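Table S4 entry, Fatty acid hydroxylase domain-containing protein.
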Amino acid sequence: MQFILENEGVIRLSVFAGVFCLMAVLETVRPRRKRSFARQKRWFSNFANLAIGAVCARLILPWVPVSVAFYAQQNPVLFEPVLPVVVGILLLDFCIYLQHVAMHKIPVLWRLHRLHHADLDYDVTTGIRFHPIEIILSLLFKMAIILIFAIDPLSVILFEVILNAMAMFNHANFKLPLKLDAVLRLFIVTPDFHRVHHSSIQAETNSNYGFNISLWDRLCRTYTAQPQDGHETMQIGLEYFRDPAQLRLGKMIIQPFCKKEP
Ligand SMILES: [Zn+2]
């Protein structure tokens, strides 16, 4: 445990790079869907968007979630720091599920979150495609939860590493054997599970909000098992953002401020 706390940066970077490379290889070897666009066309924009979000968050926010967790251990605000590490991880996961639902239901938040849904292909880089303002709001929300419940720093680090890895795994365009998918999705969010959430059919977009464990969607009745048009032929994205020009970085950054596709 001490090792994780002391080597947080290296662990985060290694898991990110390792899972990203593994997913990129699996997408090449066992693709689930035919790509509509060449990787290079989308990957630069999706990565650059992530980099801008990370730099903005570093410049604007004076804290990171784990520093808030250390603070809360010494200065509990509402609850004493008594949650076991696993409970802390599950609590964070449920709160991020609720935040995701709010991102869809509250119009001003949807303006930010729709960038994630406007990607016209679905692959490992879709999992990192969040508007910089959404990244900052998300961090603030997470820090508030950590402060209120005095969540253990170890829970926070593990949750962030798992969330990061799972976001790349469940957005990856690779085909898991269907029987394996059926077993895994009883517990965790698989690529086929989450792809439904990226359907351009609104009822499907507004389902399968979970990122890590699949329980929350089942409990809250937001679970859709499969897309009505099938995984290989379903339309990915949003009906009103179909122009490939929208995949460019500049268009992505201003997208929340556009009423509809210009
Ligand atoms: Zn969403």
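Residues 54-257 form one domain.
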